[in-house]
Amino acid sequence: MKRLIEYTKILRSKNAGPLFITFDLIFNSKVDMKYVENKLTKAEISKAYDVNEEKISIISYEVVNSIKITFPRKHISGNVEDNDIYGCQQHMALANILI
Amino acid sequence: MKIVALNGLLGYGYSEEALEIAFSEKVDYLGVDAGSTDPGPYYLGSGKSFTDRKAVKRDLSLALPKALEHKAPFIIGTSGGAGSSEHVAWLKDILLEIAKEQNLSFRLGIVLSDVSRDYVIDKLKNGKIINMSDEMPLCEQAVENSTKIVSQVGIAPIIKLLQKKADVIICGRACDTAIYAAPCIYKGCKEGLAFHMAKIMECGAMCSEPVAAADVMQAYMYEDYFELCPANPIRKCTVDRVAAHTLYEQSNPYLIYEPDGVCDLTNSVFTQVDERTVRVSGSEFKVAEEKTLKLEGVKLAGFRTICPATIYDPETIKNIDLIIKTVMDFVKANTKDTLSKDSYTVNFKLSGGEESSLGIVIDVVGITQEIADNICSLVRSRMLHCDYKGRKSTAGNLAFPFSPSDIHVGEVYEFSIFHLAKVDSLLETSRILVEEVNK
């Protein structure tokens, strides 16, 4: 078991508009990408981010050995409760999932 | 046809040498994106820019004479950061100042894209509003509460102004892609290639390595493909970088949604042409049966006062939940006769923990600035001296980095509208103006 971040060369989060957060996982090899793609579950993401499984989208983009994960932000960007307006520091809960 | 992107955001800077190189051959169009919703709702609400005036003026004053000399229309998207008419006026003022200083004359095209509350309510009543997310439905009250609403226009109004021979075009809120796709489609390029190129170019040299939003990017359009090459010789485009760029800030790497339709990258092919150049082909466009424009609106949520502080004592950090509860009970009891409890909200923005130190921002938003000040002051003073069992550091719990400790942030806005509107015409929210500058 390794932390998810150890399989990736890029692991980032960012707003996809103020309502959604999107994560890009770019891998060093197709083997790593496929391995993570098969092991990572929506249930784990749901638990890590307290988001409904049905609202999570996972899309593989093989051109650059990557996986994209998108779901609604817990708080809309800039709302009084929000702590990360650009959404670019939300990746650690994902990074720490054990694969 | 050669198109140049000044950088990824007007006011972020770029290399002057790279601009010289880009303009050392014939340039047909120059573009730059000047806005984003990334910095949050404040800027649309307040009418202010998140970019600095001096920095924006620097970026424009080097590029404007080059574009005019090359007779390359200069297209600027989402003026002033958020694209309301106030933001457009701010950018226009800078342009006119440069024109005067450098004695430049040109035809200025302006696209205003503000919409009224009545326009949105009418759409809502006629079932023409589509939610972007289930978490944010729209009701009439939310529209009524909105203090400013803009529509994100696509290529249509820019093409109108190119037809009117505008030398410089400044847009209100516009799709980032429209800046670069509009001139290509106007000149007859394939839409799929035009939008894919535009999606990459709108971030400047972000698709190159070393990566930089703050540098000049170049695209060459051909019949069946386009090529990308950064102007700055220290950078290069690689297949990986260019292909990976379509992941950025998008919810789906294969589909780019536009007011006119969808750009589909499923069959895109990326080829390394030389060390610094990448060729892209195969990107397709599907025209939407139903045309839509995105609406963005904000409401005033209150007035903010904050107090940043740090706790270094691990014993204090261990007791933080208790301290916060004690403080809030005290504040409620102290203001029960003078303030209703829904006239303010207090958030403790915490970072770090026992193993290092605990950073705290006491964040108070009140319905008036006076209430926010009042509550922040009470929270800060009570928290500083809050007791807990076994406390040794009885002189104070908080390290304040500043005097004054409390900071007025002012108006707080929140997004109230972020929805699609079905439209009869993609020009129905655009107001198009043409002015002669120094002519």
Characterization of the model:
The complex is a heterodimer of chains A (99) and B (439). Chain A is of the alpha+beta class. Chain A has three helices and four strands. Chain A has a four-stranded antiparallel beta sheet. Chain B has a ten-stranded mixed beta sheet with strand order 14-15-10-9-1-2-3-7-4-21, sandwiched between helices. In chain B, strands 5, 6, 17, 18, 19 and 20 form a six-stranded antiparallel beta sheet that branches. A three-stranded antiparallel beta sheet of chain B has the order 12-13-16, covered by helices on one side. Helices cover 31% and strands 32% of the residues of chain B. Chain B contains 13 helices and 21 strands. In chain B, a hairpin with a 2-residue loop joins strand 12 and strand 13. The longest helix of chain B is centred in the first third of the chain and has 18 residues. Chain B has 439 residues and is α+β, with helices and mostly antiparallel strands. At the A-B interface, strand 1, strand 2, strand 3 and strand 4 of A face helix 10, strand 18 and strand 20 of B.
Concise synopsis of the structure shown:
Chain A is α+β, with helices and mostly antiparallel strands and 99 residues long. Helix content of chain A is 22%, strand content 28%.
Task: Kindly list the characteristics that best describe this protein.
heterodimer, A: 99 residues, alpha+beta, four-stranded antiparallel beta sheet, 3 helices, 4 strands, 22% helix, 28% strand, globular, B: 439 residues, ten-stranded mixed beta sheet, six-stranded antiparallel beta sheet, 21 strands
Detail the poorly predicted runs of chain B: none
Number of strands of chain B: 21
Biggest beta sheet summary of chain B:
10 strands, mixed
Question: Which strand-content bin applies to the residues of chain B?
Answer: 25-35%
What is the CA-atom radius of gyration of chain A, in angstroms?
13 Å
> Helical stretch count of chain B?
13
For the report, how would you describe the main beta sheet of chain A? 4 strands, antiparallel
The number of distinct helices of chain A, counting runs of at least 4 residues, comes to: 3
- Helix % of chain B is 25-40%
Q: What's the mean pLDDT score of chain A? A: 96
Give the SSE string of chain A.
Answer: EEHHEEH
Which word captures the global form of chain B? globular
Biggest chain pair interface: A-B, 30 and 36 residues
For the largest beta sheet of chain B, what order do the strands appear in spatially? 14-15-10-9-1-2-3-7-4-21
The largest sheet of chain A has its strands arranged as 1-2-4-3
Oligomer: heterodimer
- Rg of chain B, Å, rounded: 25 Å
How many DSSP-defined strands of chain A? Answer: 4
